[in-house]
């Protein structure tokens, strides 16, 4: 027993973290994004990022289907986890063997269908595919709300309409996050936010809409006799509910070295939209967030139902089940990154040693020197089809009139504007519905260069845009926070947990829209909307 007068040996912050890792008092978040798989380890209060790991991967375009192989899923997860473990060793000279909680997140929507033997029936169809037009149109009409092309139910219905042989053998279908979680835990569950991108959710029950389940079953009864979609969908769970534990098989899948032990609880798997909302503390009404990566989307928490359905707007939920209007664009910053690669290569052959971050920094800063309307230049970032713009396929373009001003500054401003172009079309529809925002939060790698993409987004949305310190960690940190929330869900709802625990002392840099940027982007958007006819012709001709 220690006497109160006995001097205590101080434990420094580094040792406290090391002990927390050894004792499994940390939370691990893993997110499978479109181009990177990231792992993020946070401390007990979820506010401090202790270590990170990542692995780059890329989707494949096979037989006109955007896909990833399941082998690449697991090799990529193992590489990202190994990279995180290496970072832990470098920082703290210890290897984690267990965690307080784990969370899995991934790109939403898409279609992974399995038979009674848990075998994949068709290649994974990602959110990027736009081949579900007839199914999405019929479901939107029958349901009385917008069913986007990328939703899982649209993929299933299209397979039924196309009489695909695998339909008769389906016993389960899910998203990428749901699939990974299932393999790690044995549980076929999904967080309500991710589930809302599979099939419409009734926010009063936090479950699939029972009336629309009946509508769907009746609609496909003749083509797919005996199919009951409720039997095929994963179980829905809100944030804070335990969703299983890491099995021995799951631990081996994540860490083939055998160091990771079984038994860690997992939170419900979520989509990247939900983790983005958590990462930006935007789960309350009149708040919203923009997530920018390979795709770009905005999530706006609604105070009231929308007056009518709009093809530009998806109705989804927060990870807690509250209704959200989502503006989802298939194309985000990939074309911008490609151009940065071109300029980086030019620097290299000119004999300049410039790393990738420095290339982006220089080009983004130059964009601020451009004219407010990008000097009359017009850029489209459409590598894939863009439903909001009415495009089944994408053709990246640079278009200008003879009297436009082609400078590097205007070119880069046009490229940054193009990232926000389709998003702004959808947000204009939301504004016409009378939806008001107090603030938009933003996250994603594009915001790492302080004050550039953020400022131009504020101009594009004509609303204040806030960026937090964890903006570049994004959804991997967000799902780590949701995993950590498992320990507090009995005390606080998700909004209170984020506000009182995670973001109580968080720093946000907020930029208000500048009048010149607002007017300049508006002029750009007018050209952008008119020029979509050029995009449509390019798709036909090329």
From TrEMBL:
A Pfam family this chain is assigned to: FGGY_N
Designated name of the protein: FGGY-family carbohydrate kinase
InterPro entries named among the record's database cross-references: ATPase_NBD (IPR043129), FGGY_C (IPR018485), FGGY_Carb_Kinase (IPR050406), FGGY_N (IPR018484)
Gene Ontology molecular function terms on file: kinase activity
Key words, A-Z: Carbohydrate metabolism, Kinase, Transferase, Xylose metabolism
Residues covered by the Carbohydrate kinase FGGY N-terminal domain: 28-254
The keyword Kinase is annotated on this UniProt entry: yes
Keyword Magnesium: no
Assigned protein family: Belongs to the FGGY kinase family.
Domain Carbohydrate kinase FGGY C-terminal: 289-485
Gene3D superfamilies: 3.30.420.40
């Amino acid at each position: 027993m220690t006497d109160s007068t006995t001097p205590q040996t101080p434990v420094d912050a580094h040792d406290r973290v090391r002990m927390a890792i050894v004792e499994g008092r940390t939370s691990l978040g893993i997110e499978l994004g479109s181009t990177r798989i990231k792992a993020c380890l946070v401390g007990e209060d979820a506010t401090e990022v202790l270590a990170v790991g990542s692995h780059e991967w890329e989707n494949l375009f096979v037989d006109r289907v955007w896909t990833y192989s399941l082998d690449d899923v697991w090799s990529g997860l193992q590489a990202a986890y190994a990279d995180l473990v290496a970072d832990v060793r470098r920082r703290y000279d210890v290897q984690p063997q267990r965690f307080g909680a784990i969370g899995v997140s991934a790109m939403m929507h898409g279609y992974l269908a399995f038979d009674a033997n848990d075998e994949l029936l068709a290649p994974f169809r990602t959110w990027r595919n736009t081949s579900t037009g007839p199914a999405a149109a019929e479901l939107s009409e029958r349901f009385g709300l917008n069913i986007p092309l990328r939703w899982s139910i649209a993929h299933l219905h299209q397979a039924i309409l196309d009489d695909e042989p695998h339909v008769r053998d389906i016993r389960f279908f899910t998203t990428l996050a749901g699939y990974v979680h299932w393999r790690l835990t044995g549980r076929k569950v999904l967080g309500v936010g991710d589930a809302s991108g599979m099939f419409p959710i009734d926010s009063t029950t936090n479950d699939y809409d029972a009336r629309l389940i009946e509508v769907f079953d009746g609609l496909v009864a003749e083509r797919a006799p005996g199919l009951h979609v409720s039997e095929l969908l994963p179980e829905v769970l809100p944030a804070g509910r335990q969703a299983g534990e890491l099995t021995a098989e799951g631990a081996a899948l994540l860490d083939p070295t055998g160091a990771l032990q079984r038994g860690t609880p997992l939170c419900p798997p979520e989509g990247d939209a939900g983790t983005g909302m958590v990462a930006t503390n935007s789960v309350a009404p009149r708040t919203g967030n923009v997530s920018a990566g390979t795709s770009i989307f905005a999530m706006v928490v609604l105070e009231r139902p929308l007056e009518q359905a709009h093809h530009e707007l998806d109705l989804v939920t927060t990870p807690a089940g509250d209704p959200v209007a989502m503006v989802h664009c298939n194309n985000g910053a990939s074309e911008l990154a490609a151009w940065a690669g071109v300029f980086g290569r030019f620097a290299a052959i000119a004999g300049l040693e410039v790393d990738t971050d420095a290339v982006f920094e220089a080009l983004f800063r130059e964009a601020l020197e451009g004219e407010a309307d990008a000097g009359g230049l017009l850029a489209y970032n459409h590598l894939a089809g863009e439903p909001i713009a009415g495009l089944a396929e994408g053709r990246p373009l640079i278009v200008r009139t003879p009297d436009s001003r082609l400078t590097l500054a205007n070119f880069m401003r046009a490229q940054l504007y193009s990232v926000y172009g389709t998003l702004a079309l959808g947000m204009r529809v939301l504004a016409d519905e009378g939806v008001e925002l107090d603030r938009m939060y933003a996250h994603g790698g594009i915001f790492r260069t302080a004050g550039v993409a953020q400022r131009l987004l504020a101009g594009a949305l004509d609303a204040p845009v806030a960026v937090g310190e964890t903006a570049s960690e994004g959804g991997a940190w967000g799902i780590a926070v949701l995993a950590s929330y498992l320990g507090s869900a009995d005390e606080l709802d998700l909004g209170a947990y984020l506000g009182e625990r995670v973001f109580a002392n968080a720093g946000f840099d907020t930029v208000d829209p500048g009048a010149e940027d607002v007017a300049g982007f508006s002029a750009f958007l007018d050209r952008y909307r008119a020029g979509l006819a050029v995009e449509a012709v390019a798709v036909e001709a090329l």
